[in-house]
Design brief:
The chain is an alpha/beta fold. The protein contains ten helices and seven strands. The chain has a single domain, classed as 3-Layer(aba) Sandwich (Rossmann fold), CATH 3.40.50. 37% of the residues lie in helices and 15% in strands. Strands 1, 2, 3, 4, 5, 6 and 7 form a seven-stranded parallel sheet that branches. The longest helix is centred in the C-terminal third of the chain and has 14 residues.
Length: 220
Amino acid sequence: MPEYDIGYFSSKIKRKKLSKLRDIKNRIIAWRLDKEYYDGKRINGYGGFKYDGRWKTLLPKLIKKYNLSKNSKVLEIGCKKGFLLQDLKVLIPGIKLYGLENHKYPITKVKKIPKKNLFLNDYHRLDFFKKKQFDLVIAFNSIYMQNLGDVIKTLQQIERISKKSYISIASYTNKKDRDRFLDWTLLGTTILTEKEWKKLFRIIGFRGDYYFSNAGKLGL
């Protein structure tokens, strides 16, 4: 269960200005998790969640690390519009891919993945998946939008349904670091220190790989 960095935040975006401008109104709008959050104004979310090809550069690291092949089954929790899955399908033709989202708007935009392989459900309610059904379960910056109790349930479900897993979660090292992250984030809910996350993993028996995102890595 080591920390593993695939370089997701290697290209930093200036976000400090947004931290100063966002307030409770923007958070309320963002939590609707609809078109405005994904494709509306930047202050309310992504400001246009568009394909940029980043995953074609980053995915080869995951493919090599987890020995993915056309015989592999991969689930992405928080798949959004499916850009990661789309590029993984190009890199490994024939691979079996599945996506899960807890809100409707982005998953209706997923292309090139069979509709029967896309699921709309809470991240912590995965009882319909079988034990060790997936060779790899991925969750990039998605599960920490839940409260702590649901985060724990989600991690336990990931452990149950996956042979291997890789998640990225929000962390901080000191109060100033935490405040910078909270000033910027619209959806971040469960944000712990790295030490707290590791202790949580031990307590609940989560053995997957992970990556800590924080204010510094986000360029805040």
